[in-house]
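From the pipeline queue, job 12 of 40. The input is one protein chain; the requested action is below.

Action: predict structure.
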Amino acid sequence: MSSQLITAAKTLLAGLSIGLTAACDQSGLAVESGVSLPLAQYRAGIISNLSYRVTFDIPAQAADDISGHIIISMQLSGIEQPLQLDFRASADNIKRVTINQRTSEYLFSSEHLVIPQSELQIGMNKIEIEFIAGSQSLNRNPEYLYTLFVPDRARTAFPVFDQPDLKATYELTLIVPGDWVALSNAPIESIDSVGTRRKYQFKRSDLISSYLFSFVAGKFQAVTRTRDGHSMTMLHRETDPQKLQRNLDDIFDLHWAALDWLENYTGIEYPYQKFDFALIPAFQYRGMEHVGAVQYRAATLLLDESASEMERLSRAKLIAHETAHMWFGDLVTMRWFDDVWTKEVFANFMAAKIINPSFPEIDHELNFLATMHPGAYAVDRTAGANPIRQYLGNLNGAGQMYGAIIYKKAPIMMRQLETLIGEGKFRQGVQTYLQRYSFANASWPDLIAILDALSDEDLQAWSDVWVNTPGRPAFLLKAASAGEAPTQFALLQQDFAGSGRVWPQQFEIMAVSQDKVVRTKVLSTSASTALVENHASTSILFNSDGFGYALFPASIKNLELWDQLSDLERGSELINLYEQLLTSASPDVEQYLMALQRIIVMEKNQLLLDLALKQLHRIYWSFLTPAKRLALAPELETTLWQTMLSDDNSSRKKLIFLAFADIALSPGQVQKVYDIWAESLQIDQLILSENDNINLSQTLAIKLPESSSTIVSAQIKRTENPDSQRRMHFISASLAADQSERDTFFSSLAQEKNREVESWVLDALKNLHHPLRRSTSERYILPSLALLQEIQVTGDIFFPALWLNATLVNYNSSSAVNTVTAFLAARPGYDEQLRMKILQSADMAIRANSIVARALPE
């Protein structure tokens, strides 16, 4: 019998066996796709002393198969049921299986090798498998590859027990082309020549979860730096030597500083054998915390000469975030991915602490506010808002746990928690948590129990609202005494959901009258909080310290106080005003746009300038009718252009210029953008990078369709970095003036192979759905929604939400909104996580439609 027939027979028998088991034994575990919670709990209860010895033989050609061999050793305390080993690939990828040195009669079903009980034994067991590696998470490129296994993608590449609470050691062997280098979690033990090829043998890794196992291999350059006897190596593919040298010292110094700070804060020395990192072009995320082998998107660390203050700060925070993960997430890992947010909140929260010493000139309170609050509000204000902690029944849905709520709202929550119990007790609790669960797993309730023992507060009840429910409150100021000039006021906390929840929190109110400024600290722990001070003042700024989390009252008249306010107070009021604009029954969009225009002219703080420019972008493209946008464009274009010319700071100058290029509509102004891109117009101190010019070429190709082909061809020719050239070739069809060419390109995205480099796909989608193309691109919304479930299965964790955002965010028509609502209405049983993602991404379009509709003549 052929191997294909044997495999088919085993697959058929597996289905029959599973059906019989379910019918005869209600306690038996079903064999189903993914990794179900019951399966994970069962395996965690019986498996210990787990280790993997795995070999991958990687050919030079990306289209050729990668053969693999793995030996899995483990101790079993029970064999009451067949053992399910995860492998999301074809049954044909399995070539040979032996269990305890005997050929296995395994069955293959629903992404699992099902090993019969009769082949297992109490005590140590050894499983040996020859296989062809699955390609989905190996991210193969012509000259390199890298793994990305979070949250449950290790099983797409090789057979594994793919759950976070089965930590194991890995001994990796890579056989690669002779001119490739390699990096993994553990140090290199040996490098040998195998003919024209190269064999890397890595030492045994520390105990890690399967999603943290990783390797990078390819044509990279290596840079090693040593400090205090410890070496750190960086892999990169940068072709600009000046750019590389300009950034190297900062990159290594920021890593060393983060490690030093974390060792001091946690009281635990760096817990792993080494710390290296790889800079990867077009990496799906900004970074990924693989133990000892962090991966970064190259552009986030290798900054341009004219990098802004925010870009430098963002890089420092990213490095601190990924370094913090070595303790928070890697050393102590969540038991199940419903608590994935715990590792992310600690990484973000600690990163905000870590970067302060390195950037003494930065207003870190403002940075935290501007970085966290807008992104968190963008989800929590929607009909699809999700709690920080969510239920997860199967790891194949774990990717949908990620989003702005865990990256943005959770650090805000954690800061409130630290303030509630005190910084000293918080740190003490964190140290206890890390020591107790080192190289093991823990849950959020485990941490709350530790902190609860150190505090007089009821942290369980506090957590129930902040962590286990979605949304945000609204605050209202209400007179508590009668008369035309009341002397007493109360602050009301309202629950939008009508369930009477209260978010206990602290923040400041700033009252400004003609002769004084009064700042009042508010502790809101009930639906109504009495205020001692008389707040019948000329102006009141709510959340003036940026510490609270809610929809706060705001008045555009407060912007008249701009010169009297601190940077933090300015940022808080900008955010409050924008949130009120989005929720108001009759927003004065044009008035606020003009106010932003005045702020941009005078504001020198780049964090505030960036915040104002982002708000201006959204209002300009989404909240104005086409006629009103054209009417307002000339004045706005002139203001931005003149402000850019007069600014003597190169990074601010670039920030304002890029905003000008974005909003420019008048032919003469678009021509200025073209001339700067074409280098026929030089502006003093305006320094544009290759990436800036690539982005400008896309904007120009859309705004000058008659010249789009020429612009794209010229940009490809002038682009020196080969990876960037590949990106331009990929997205070129999305810039085509010919609608049929764009239609063909969009249709091609239905094929998984054309979505492999997700960052390129997102660039292309933004081009297809540019606001100037709404009338011709709206047809893509429905098929994009129809692809979402497949994208959730085949794409990486952030891709479904990013796909939706790129598709929906720029629309404001009733027809676009109706397409989304009709799609969901026709699918009452649709996946709940994906439904929430759609509602989150559609929220801006829904609000913009409402705002624009009110501005249209009846």
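Job complete. Residues 1-27 have pLDDT under 50 and may be disordered.
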